[in-house]
Input
Amino acid sequence: MTDQSRRKFIATAAAAALIGPFISTTTTRARAAASQKKIGFALCGLGGLSENTIAPAFRHSKHCRLTGLITGSPEKAGPWRAKYGIPERSVYSYDTMQHMADNPDIDAVWVVTPNALHAEHTIAAAKAGKHVICEKPLEVSVERCQRMIDACKAEKRLLATAYRCQFDPLHLECMRLAREQTFGRVEIIEAGFGIKLGGDDQWRLKHALSGGGALMDVGVYALQATRYLTGEEPVLVSAMETKTDPVKFKEVDESMVWTAKFPSGAIAHCSTSYSIPGIQRVRASAERGWFEMDPAFNFTGNRGRRSDGKELRFADIDLFAAQMDDFAECIRANRPSKVPGEEGMRDVRIMLAIYEAARTGRSVQLT
Output
């Protein structure tokens, strides 16, 4: 080899040595970016919650994007497509959800339809190979909840219940205070959530679609709070229902109160209503003090205080973006959500026991 050839060989080898790591690093970064692509969601049901809250939350999401629509009202699709840039091929009816199996842009479905349709739509999404977040209550019976859970497991898809409060920094702090017994063991919890329900023609007033009234819709938030603050499941419930408008609330509960006893001896007094707005509180009384949230269940602006005078307040976050981002990380890591379908089913079981207690006038044991 001549000196000139040798010099050319060395220069070429050196260049390759410099470029090689660059190519390797670039490729690695590209692969990492691809593996961290945003999780594509289809919204199933384009009602008020989807339109006003969930869809806008995708703008605040780090890991998710809106990539599909499922609706029983074809006329809604046009404005949604234009607003969110959804291609026509990613719009489905409830009867064509199986075709999502051929759409790689959709990884998950958020079910936001009437309660008694949750099983139908969750199972259809799972069979199409999609993970599912389902709005609360998970369904209207334990049997239907179990079918949803089984369908997702059979397809190796994740199922989460849309319990946004378990992502609220204020609620998480109260869970910490309870778990660490900052004020001693929690012995009494008072929780309530009431709203003023609007028109007489909505599906929430039809038992066949809702499965119940105020308890199923907003009372479940109070029930959830008693469970995640005690860290226990109730063993006994008693309840009472009242109606001030028996015509409007002919098929579902208007207002209810219930008491629950927990294995540790803790007792919860709870209330819910479709006629009384402004009830939004959780107060936990412990051996050496108390802590409370009031308001507790808003999308933003929740706050609280402690018996030692400290205020409980955190910067607002988009709770819907927080829960979808957590679900995206669960999908990537192939790990269950902290609010799986089983969590939603537990609440449905307890709510049905509360209804039984109100109907019979007798306490109902839960085993």
About this structure: Residues 1-34 have pLDDT under 50 and may be disordered. Residues 169-314+340-365 form a domain with the Dihydrodipicolinate Reductase; domain 2 fold (CATH 3.30.360.10). Residues 3-35 form the longest helix (33 residues). The CA atoms of residues 235 and 263 lie 7 Å apart.
